[in-house]
Amino acid sequence: MSEITNKFLMAFLVALAASSAGAETITGKVVGVSDGDTITVLDAERTQYKIRVSGIDAPEKAQAFGQRSKASMSELVFGKDVEVV
């Protein structure tokens, strides 16, 4: 293989490893809701994970509609089993 091909292959493998390094799946029960876009998940080993939902920006508790946002998220997920990817 040429040097350019080797460098390309190495760069590709590094990029592939980096993209899958953070791809962990967490399965557990929602045990807390901080606000409209942040939940706490408890897994089978009793480890808690604070999860922020990507792609949304809900109001914080002290902001206008913050309590309503938290209540809506609680209604949707609190006490339910979830899988976070």
- Poorly predicted runs are none
**Widest sheet, order of strands:** 3-2-1-4
Q: Sheet with the most strands? A: 4 strands, antiparallel
Instruction: Please indicate the count of domains.
Output: 1
Label the CATH architecture: Beta Barrel
Number of strands: 4
Q: In the CATH scheme, what's the topology name?
A: OB fold (Dihydrolipoamide Acetyltransferase, E2P)
Model description:
- The protein is an alpha+beta fold and 85 residues long.
- It has a single domain, classed as OB fold (Dihydrolipoamide Acetyltransferase, E2P).
- Helices cover 36% and strands 29% of the residues.
- It has two helices and four strands, in the order αβββαβ.
- Strands 3-2-1-4 form a four-stranded antiparallel sheet.
- It starts with a helix and ends with a strand.
- The mean pLDDT is 83.
Brief description of this entry?
With 85 residues, this protein is of the alpha+beta class. It has helices at residues 3-21, 66-77; strands at 26-35, 38-43, 48-52, 81-84. Strand 1 (26-35) and strand 2 form a beta hairpin.
Secondary structure: elements and pairs:
Elements: H1 3-21, E1 26-35, E2 38-43, E3 48-52, H2 66-77, E4 81-84
Antiparallel strand pairs: 1-2, 1-4, 2-3
